[in-house]
Amino acid sequence: MQTDMTLNTPISSHPGPENWCSIAYFELDTQVGEIFKVPSNCSTVTIDGYVDPSGLERFCLGQLSNVHRTEASERARLHIGKGVQLDLRGEGDVWVRCLSDHAVFVQSYYLDREAGRAPGDAVHKIYPSAYIKVFDLRQCHAQIRQQVATAQAAAAAQAAAVAGHVPGPQSVGGIASAVRYSAAAGIGVDDLRRLCILRMSFVKGWGPDYPRQSIKQTPCWIEIHLHRALQLLDEVLHTMPLMEPRPMD
């Protein structure tokens, strides 16, 4: 059981990043405008639909132009309103408050786990005025370490299978066993980076319960890169490097 002292101890002694997150805004599959970076000394940032100039603590989407903007994006942008507030807590936990009159939809591995769903299996609806935790740094760090360890073990087992060191009737030429291990061994850095990223759409949802299967089909959405988590990912990969799976030829 974790004590308060354990929870308050930083995961890493490495100094924190200059910016705690960076936010990219998209309409359908197109990024619009520049990436917005939030300094680590600003623990709260608001992303809204207004046309005021953006400041350190406020990213205004209403001012961003897109010559290819669709009518659906134009309509959805009118309803972003006060948008959302992101709060950084502790070393890297993130909470979201929905300030808009319309719900927002978030892809969050933390909420997947809380809901008992498989990672990446669900899209979570955050209703107006709701304030909920969407990212837990310790859980993310543990998940990264677990996936890297799984990939390392699978890559080693795959190499052994290819070499014919796995006995049994299933391992004809070692290939059948190697195929079984190849999926886990194929976990790459991009898969691990996804654990350090939040995606959130305004007004329109996506996923199994909606006509849009991908967030890239929603009219306006943001992608939030969490820099402390990405920093910890780099640390893990330095101490537990991913082995490239051997080609099966």
Structure description:
The chain is of the alpha+beta class and 249 residues long. The chain is built from seven helices and twelve strands. The strands form two sheets. Strands 1, 2, 3, 8, 9, 11 and 12 form a seven-stranded antiparallel sheet that branches. Strands 5-4-6-7-10 form a five-stranded mixed sheet. Strand 6 and strand 7 form a beta hairpin. Helix 4 runs parallel beside helix 7. The protein is globular, with a radius of gyration of 21 Å. It starts with a helix and ends in a 10-residue tail after the last helix. The C terminus is likely disordered.
How are the SSEs placed, and which strands pair?
Layout: H1 4-8, E1 19-27, E2 30-31, E3 36-39, E4 44-48, E5 58-60, H2 71-78, E6 84-89, E7 93-98, E8 104-107, H3 109-114, E9 124-126, E10 131-135, H4 137-162, H5 175-185, H6 189-194, E11 197-202, E12 221-226, H7 227-239
Parallel strand pairs: 4-5
Antiparallel strand pairs: 1-2, 1-3, 1-12, 4-6, 6-7, 7-10, 8-9, 8-11, 11-12
Helix pairs in contact: 4-5, 4-7
What Rg do the Cα atoms give?
21 Å
Described by strand count, sense and barrel closure, the largest sheet is:
7 strands, antiparallel
Low-confidence stretches are 169-182, 245-249
- Tell me the series of helices and strands, N- to C-terminal: HEEEEEHEEEHEEHHHEEH
Which structural category do the helix and sheet elements fall into?
Answer: alpha+beta
Strand content: 15-25%
Number of helices: 7
Question: Helical amount among residues, as a percent range?
Answer: 25-40%
Number of strands: 12
> Terminal Cα separation, in Å?
47 Å
Mean pLDDT: 87
Task: State the shape.
Answer: globular
